[in-house]
Design a protein that fits this description.
There is one protein chain. The chain is an alpha/beta fold. The chain has ten helices and 13 strands. It has helices spanning 17-28, 66-70, 88-93, 95-116, 152-172, 196-205, 225-237, 254-265, 289-295, 303-319; strands at residues 8-12, 32-37, 56-60, 78-81, 119-125, 176-181, 184-185, 210-213, 219-221, 223-224, 244-246, 251-253, 271-274. The protein has a seven-stranded parallel β-sheet with strand order 3-2-1-4-5-6-11, sandwiched between helices. Strands 7-10 form a two-stranded parallel ribbon. Helix 5 (152-172) links the parallel strand 5 (119-125) and strand 6. Helix 6 crosses helix 10 and helix 8 crosses helix 10 (303-319). The longest helix is centred in the first third of the chain and has 22 residues, at 95-116. The chain is globular, with a radius of gyration of 19 Å. The mean pLDDT is 93. The structure holds nicotinamide-adenine-dinucleotide. Nicotinamide-adenine-dinucleotide is lined by residues 12-13, 15-19, 36-42, 62-64, 82-86, 90, 101, 105, 123, 125, 181, 183-184.
């Protein structure tokens, strides 16, 4: 972790998929961790292994509640603002909550960072690029987002959060950074959250057809969660403000992904083509030059190896 060890970190959304991996990694590095989560889309099971460890504390609370944030005792030197419903199924079910946590939640987390003199990192997303007209997407690209489309609650929440972080830095000198995370996958994704990897893996393990949207020619660049965590912490440890893209380089079509998962699970499942969601981006691949040059980061786990680990985790969870 670039030799940097924080003494005490607050992770909003720490009981979610990516947040729980961040909590574990920071604890391993000797940082005390407070995980603030309202369990809207996360689960206590994600941090169950961490709860007995000294230095870890789970607080059930809402990041949009001023008292929940301001009321946390002690001082933090790192705040990672990861609270936000992140899968399309979740943010479409929780549209107003998604906008609130990007706006009020981000403002409150920034205020706490400012008061504590903490380094602050916002979890932003490749979705700020919308259905991109530039490929691959570099940080200077402004995006192609429909502000009133069904995905706008997520995309615009994150775009507003980025604006807020930038304004806080300029107006108040808060030590901030923005990471734009691309599709991340790995253990502790939730079955039924609608994202391609957990959906396909669960369908394959259950012997059900793998539901590929449209003709399956749309691409994503997958990043294994350990690599994403490395990137987030490298950014936190640096003096960079971002935005910085963190994501996988291997672009893969959804049809290829489904076939690879069928192969890995040894399933007899077939592919079934279903309707494509509105405003579903056709292509998505990060330009990661900035992260490579400024943070010395690069993804290390190829999608084949990462998928094997993920399938292994889902198989063990299903058997447990
Ligand atoms: P997740 O849904 O598993 O985790 C989000 C966590 O935030 C959950 O534990 C949820 O309960 C919590 N939460 C939501 N609203 C809250 C609130 N108001 N107060 C407190 N807690 C709240 O999603 P994830 O995939 O782990 O994503 C984590 C972050 O990373 C999100 O901000 C997301 O936008 C960002 N991100 C993730 C990906 C990805 O591929 N996983 C890609 C881009 C960006």
């Amino acid at each position: 972790m670039n030799g940097q060890v924080w003494s005490r970190a607050l992770i909003t959304g720490g009981a979610g998929f990516v947040g729980s991996h961040l909590c574990a990694r920071l604890l391993d590095a000797g940082t005390a961790v407070v995980c603030l989560d309202n369990l809207a889309t996360g689960s206590r099971a994600n941090v169950a292994d961490l709860e007995p460890r000294p230095g870890f504390r789970f607080v059930r609370g809402d990041a949009t509640d001023p008292e929940a944030l301001a009321g946390l005792p002690g001082r933090f030197d790192l705040i990672l603002h990861f609270a936000c419903p992140a899968s399309p199924v979740d943010y479409l079910r929780l549209p107003l909550e998604t906008l609130d946590v990007g706006s009020t939640g981000t403002r409150l987390a920034l205020e706490r960072a400012h008061a504590d003199g903490a380094r602050f990192v916002l979890a932003s997303t490749s979705e700020v690029y919308g259905d991109p007209l530039e490929h691959p997407q570099r940080e200077g690209y402004w995006g192609n987002v429909n502000p009133v489309g069904p995905r706008s609650v997520y995309d615009e929440s994150k775009r507003f959060a980025e604006a807020l972080v930038t304004a806080h830095r300029g107006a108040r000198g808060t030590d901030t950074a923005i990471v734009r995370i691309f599709n991340t996958y790995g253990p502790r994704m939730r079955t039924g959250d609608g994202r391609a990897v957990p959906t396909f893996v669960t369908q394959a393990l259950d012997g059900m057809p793998l539901t590929v949207a449209g003709d399956g020619g749309q691409t994503r660049s997958l990043c294994y969660v350990d690599d994403t965590v490395d990137g987030v912490l490298a950014l936190a440890a640096s003096a960079e403000t971002g935005p910085v893209n963190i994501g996988g380089d291997d672009e893969i079509t959804m049809l290829e992904l489904a076939r690879r998962i069928i192969e890995l699970t040894g399933s007899a499942s077939r592919v079934r083509h279903v309707g494509r969601p509105v405003d579903d981006p056709a292509r998505r691949r990060p330009d990661t030059r900035l992260a490579r040059e400024r943070l010395g980061w690069r993804p290390r786990v190829g999608w084949s190896e990462g998928l094997e680990r993920t399938v292994g985790w889902f198989s063990r969870s299903a058997a447990a």
